[in-house]
Every structure is written in C-alpha cells, then in structure tokens.
C-alpha cells in the first residue's frame, strides 16, 4: 500500500469514509481561499470537498478520471523580492467542455496532483 500525501490530517480523516474499498487514496490537498475545501485524488477519481458549494452547504463532488479530457498545472513562484511569499499553484481539470480550477498553497501541489491524475489516465 502506497503512502497517502496530505496537507492536514483532519481532511484525510474526513475524506476516508468516501473512499470505496476498490480504490486507493493517493493524496489530499488543502485548497487556497476562503470558503474552500480540499481535493482528494484516488486511483479512480477526484473527490472535491467543497465548503462553499450551494451557498452554506457542504458538498462532496466526484469527477471520475475516465471522464477527464484535459489537465493542466500552473505555478506562481512569488515575486522577485519575496520569492516564497505568495507561492501558490493551480490545477485545471476539464470534463468535456466544463473546467474546474483548484488553487493550492505551495508551488509544487498542482504539479504533484497533475502527475497523480496523469498516472490514473494512462
């Protein structure tokens, strides 16, 4: 069994009941921004825990990897004067014509998520 990469233990514990016995959890990344949640990646799907979905309700949204048509990662390395101050990264996942953007704290999170998703697609 592979080790799960995660940012916060409570997010890992919160998503664990949603992971089916036939799938393997690979990562859980904390999302950047107010009212956001976290993104979990399994070998079969993306699970987005959205605290801001439908107003004040919380929702668990699933994107099967088999439906993903495009994936892109982008990083923001900060400014010239403070290269580590505002470091973030974005992952864009498209399902047909609909695209979802996820923003993470840290320059490497989107790229790691990208790699895990690509591994699941190939």
UniProtKB/TrEMBL annotation:
Database matches in Pfam families: bPH_3
Q: Which superkingdom does the taxonomy of this entry point to?
A: Bacteria
The protein here is known as YokE-like PH domain-containing protein
Where would I find the YokE-like PH domain in this sequence?
Answer: 33-76
């Amino acid at each position: 069994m592979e080790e799960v990469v995660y940012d916060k233990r409570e997010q890992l514990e919160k998503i664990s009941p949603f992971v089916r016995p036939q799938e393997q959890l690979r990562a859980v990344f904390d999302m950047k921004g107010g009212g956001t949640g976290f993104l979990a990646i399994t070998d079969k799907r993306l699970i987005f825990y959205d605290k801001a979905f439908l107003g004040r309700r919380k929702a668990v949204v699933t994107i099967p990897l088999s439906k993903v048509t495009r994936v892109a990662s982008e990083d923001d390395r900060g400014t010239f004067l403070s290269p580590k101050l505002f470091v973030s990264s974005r992952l864009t996942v498209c399902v047909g014509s609909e695209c979802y953007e996820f923003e993470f704290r840290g320059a490497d999170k989107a790229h790691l998520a990208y790699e895990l998703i690509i591994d699941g697609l190939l």
